[in-house]
UniProtKB/TrEMBL annotation:
Organismal lineage: Bacteria, Bacillati, Actinomycetota, Actinomycetes, Kitasatosporales
PROSITE patterns: GNAT (PS51186)
One family name in Pfam for this protein: Acetyltransf_1
Stretches assigned to coiled coil: none
InterPro entries to which the protein is assigned, alphabetical: Acyl_CoA_acyltransferase (IPR016181), GNAT_dom (IPR000182)
Provenance organism: Streptomyces violascens
Protein's recorded name: N-acetyltransferase domain-containing protein
Domain N-acetyltransferase: 128-264
Length: 264
């Protein structure tokens, strides 16, 4: 694990690229990370995320590499996401992906905070309890929130999280916020062994329960666990909605990432 003290955001970004992208580990059961040419990609069946994690391309070889990766994922019959970061080269990589049949989705801000700098004692609003998720019943509660908060059917989300709890429980922690017996918010955190980063995912809250401090309480809950496990940084791909909250809590924008999707 790299334990360098970072003096600038550029230094932290370089370590993030090295630990979380160029030398990435599989993010769940069934996933395989492999290097192909000048890219690092993840492949796998079913609920596994398939896509490009890191690339080191030039204007001379970018189009050929994009075409090769598109053919590879098409041969597998898998949807592919090229996770493009604002500092990736060449500078017009996004335009080249569009020309190759990828579709851009809304960009997100990569934000990072030192675990030691984040508040740990944020309590949920009155009437809200936080319940750790450890089994299928808890995953079902999370999926109910996921479906209403994000507008999809939650099938893939449920399958992936169940597999993670069954086969690699040490890589994930999850929590659901309940108003009585009703799930109103949920979130998870993935641990990345060998790195200094844990990553925050989900954080969905039902519309009628937003603005009550539940999201902040879920951040604090996961921060406490990251601190107990010795992780130094929390990382999150933040939407425009969550970015202001995260900045108030102490997260710093590091770069911007845009998903480029190519469907089979």
């Amino acid at each position: 694990m790299d334990t360098t003290t970072f003096g600038t955001d550029d230094e932290l970004l370089a370590v993030f690229d090295r630990q979380m992208r160029e030398n990435a580990l599989p993010d769940g059961p069934g996933a395989i990370v492999e290097r192909s040419g000048d890219v690092v990609r993840q492949v796998g069946p079913g609920q596994v995320w398939n896509g490009i994690i890191w690339s080191d391309l030039t204007a001379a070889n970018a189009d050929a590499e994009i075409a090769a990766q598109a053919r590879h994922f098409a041969s597998l019959g898998n949807e592919c996401e090229w996770k493009l970061y604002a500092h990736d080269c060449p500078a017009d990589l996004g335009r080249r992906l569009l020309a190759a049949g990828f579709e851009a989705e809304p960009e997100e801000t990569v934000m990072v905070a030192r675990v030691a700098d984040l508040p740990l004692d944020v309590e949920p609003a009155d009437g809200i309890t936080l319940r750790p998720v450890t089994d299928a019943a808890g995953v079902d509660l999370m999926a109910c929130v996921h479906e209403r908060a994000f507008g999809d059917d939650g099938v893939r989300f449920r399958a992936r999280l169940l597999a993670q709890f069954a086969e690699a429980p040490e890589t994930v922690t999850a929590v659901v916020a309940l108003a009585g017996d009703v799930p109103v918010s949920a979130a998870r955190m993935d641990f990345h062994p060998g790195t200094e980063f844990a990553s925050l995912w989900g954080g969905g809250t039902l519309p009628e329960w937003r603005g009550k401090g539940i999201y902040r309480a879920l951040i604090a809950y996961r921060t406490r666990i990251a601190a107990e496990r010795g992780y130094r940084y929390l990382q999150v791909d933040a939407s425009d909605q969550s970015r202001p909250i995260l900045q108030r809590l102490g997260f710093t924008p590091l770069t911007v990432t845009t998903p480029y999707i190519r469907r089979p």
